[in-house]
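Sharing a chain and its predicted structure for anyone who wants a worked example. Both blocks are below, sequence first, tokens second.
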Amino acid sequence: MYDLVIKNGKLVTPDRIYEAQIAVKNGKFAAFLSSEEEVDAEETIDAKGHLVYSGIIDCHAHLNEPGFEYREDFETGSRAAVAAGCTTLIDMPLNNDPSLINKEIFDMKLAKISRHSYVDFALWGGLVGDFDDSPDSVKNNMGDLVDLQKCGVAAFKGFTCPNGPLFPTVNLGNIRKALEILKPYDSVCGFHCEEFGQVKEREKEAKAKTDQTREQKIRDFLDAHDVWTEYVATKNVIDMARATGGRVHICHVSHPMVAQVVKDAQHEGLRVTAETCPHYLGFTENFVFEKGAPAKCTPPLRDQKAVDGLWDYVLDGTLSCVGSDHSPAADEEKDNATKDIWHAWGGLNSIQYFLPMMFDMTVHKRKLSPTLIARVMDYNPAKIFGFYGRKGAFEIGFDADIVIVDPEKPWRYDEKKLYTKGHVSCFDGLTGKGAPTHTFIRGQLVAEDGMYLEDRKGYGEFVRPVPMQ
């Protein structure tokens, strides 16, 4: 007898949709059976002809624990994630104090967050440069990278733009050295790509202006982070991949001009992957003028031509993943009444509608196949970050992560009903169709109809990359 059977569902993979019953035993996929076959199970769920995915992986989210729990912690962020259909989340190492830059911090963080995660999770390790020459400054962590790799981090993250003392910017020398160190381990190094000098000088010039309107300040912010800052940094990082043969991942690509640089590198045979986010695929810079501080993020939103062009690179596989880049803030940090675009916290509160937003944009607005969701939000992230073999597909012996989606289920983004700590979001009032009805992690129900199950707190497990064969 099986523990769980999902019947009458349409299974969605990267290349097809088909009908089958899913049988689960001991938290793993145990069998895939014809719709007509009689199956004995402790529990049976009728998927009612809805779409069924083998999990949803958010490859890029900031849950802010430890150090900045007033913005978000793993309990609040992970409960919002599972409510949205996420089954595995990879937490980013910055926006923490301390940031995850060595083994000691890794051990402390893992012990803390494991107690209250609703979602299975992996961790990005930090990749930092020298902040300054003072004795108490954060120093580069080149000597800690191998230890972090052995701890089981999924990838390493660095910033090429100004980022403050807690997570110092890496220069090209740091990037090259890190890729050389990590190449024997086949580790992925991801980068926030905006070129330091351009951002620094353009921001300084813009902030020196006086007596500006709200719209003028927003225009200057967008211009200080224009596509050339992203383009140049991406080319520089890819050059270091070319020099070393290391694996590079370009985070949150916002513009087709940058995506083309990635595509050229891939055609050259370089080990380069890249991701984008729902907000770059569905919203333009006009949204920043409309919403103000709650819509501040970097790279910023681009124009409509860029939005439309970016989809081509998702469809052809250049941009192989879509992550939420959830970066929460305390409500006062996104308050238009007290914070202009320069002083507001950067990042968007988006994790609770990660799958619904992407599903609506893909299936209903763009009229694309639901299989694209399986590709960019499950299979590809599992492959890139080393989870395939355990997650990312309907395969015997893989974790029984299951998300049942009603493609016609209406939803409305209501910031007052968010499970995150912060309740200010630029997406407030957004509506769409397509949302999860059931979310299972390793065969256990963790969320139903948009509500997380409180007794699943602490159920989430740390996921290590599957060892190379």
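Comments welcome. Residues 277 and 322 are 5 Å apart (CA to CA).
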